[in-house]
Amino acid sequence: MIVTRFAPSPTGYIHIGNVRSAIYPYLLARQNDGKMILRIEDTDRARYVEGATELIEDTLEWLGLNWDEGPIVGGSHGPYFQSERKEIYHEWARKLIATGRAYADPTPPEKIDEYRKQCNEQKIPFLYRNFRPENPPEWQPGTPLRFKVEPKSYQWHDEVMGDMHSGPEVLDDIILIKKDGFPTYNFAHIVDDAEMGVTHVMRGVEYLSSTPNYLAIYEALGLTRPKLVSLPHILAPTGNKKLGKRDGAKSVTEYRDDGVLAEAMLNYLACLGWNDGTEQEIYTKAELIKNFSLDRVQNSGARYDETKLLWMNGQWIRRIVDEQGVEALYSRTDNFWPASAASHSQEYRIKVLSIIYDRLKTLSDLREMTAYFFSDPEINTDMIINNKFLKKMPESELESLLKECIAKLTNLNNWDADSLQAALNDLLAETNKKPAELFSLIRIALSFAPFSPALNLTMDVLGKDTTLARLNAVARAI
RNA sequence: GGUCUCGUAGUAUAACGGUUAGUACAACGGGUUUUCAUCCCGUCAACGCGGGUUCGACUCCCGCCGAGAUCACCA
User: Within a domain: residue A247?
Assistant: First the structure.
């Protein structure tokens, strides 16, 4: 069975740059009826951020990346917080001590710095294994524990990067257990992956360089290597560095709050650096699970492009309406309406949504784009007078046009989109005006917004009373 | 500096020895009775450089250049 894991450290929110190492393990596990484990790597107490674990869980839940073992759901390989597994690491550490593959290192940090400096001056690579203490004491908490490597070459296969090899020069005596008794990442993840039965270790490429050291530990511990998968970085919009919080990488949930749909987010992120070889762009989660494959994960970094994310979000907004109806989209719009919408019925809001949704890039666009449906807009005659189609028309003509329109609509019996369009067409013929002129005037008078849906639809939703009231108000103001 | 990885349009990518180098986003132009958007049509735009191998190279080999990663008691 395939077992994958997402193992973040709780140092803050999950952002665009690192969420892919949760998505791919998820897809792989689901595709193969496997399991995904969520493990919290909180061995660095200095960097621990209160509430970060909840932020991580929240992000995964929103994206629909549920885990089979881990916090909240539990499981038979717990605990899933490394801080609660100290004894387990010590146990494994003692195995290495017993076989002579680990030693306590009482060397003070200042001394180590000195060694490092010496090497730098002599322009030779600094390897701690050349400075091993001669008679290491018996290990006890309070003293760091180091791995005792046997320098040699390694070969391995990375599911994304391909066949890899390294020479003995990259191997060193890395710290296994820190002075404070907590394990380093380098040791803890190996122990945990082994104990939890993880078959695919997926993580960012930054770990590629240390892989030989991990290989040496697997070997010393007599463990079978899991499959190793290096995921390329997501690059910041500018420069060539990986996207990080310093580049203003937004948290994933911030996009949710800005009205990006989880489907779009998942779709975009999954396809950034992976494709199935077809020209498909829009994928549901089920399709991603079905089509995902590690060997088609790109091995170079991919630049994050918010414009494309937003395009994809628009695609998803329309797709949801097309496939599930406006109500389905409406159910996700709770926090995105202008304040004035609260005094209107849900039915009315759904009608507004049904004529505006194809203009949305994010759900939060609703706030600005629908204001005039819920409260009368402030009359701004400049918008009419300066309009490119209307500016050469004298004010008296604008007024009479509005009045003709009011008369026509007042006598209209059926207030529906088709009848309204017919009435507008009649009006066009009767006034002998171009659509650009007549429709611009009415559109602005009703909304005073930079843009709005088709005129007949807008009037239909606004209703007869509001439409006529607004036209009258403008006719008086001109 | 050592070691490792990567290199197709502005961006994300397809191709896996033979194509007018395909697609999408962006940009630009046009169409759909007003606007904005959707939708549709079109335009611009790429194989980092230099050597090989081959009848033929984006594809294979070598060198160079460029970019990134890593060398912590951080993960």
Answer: no
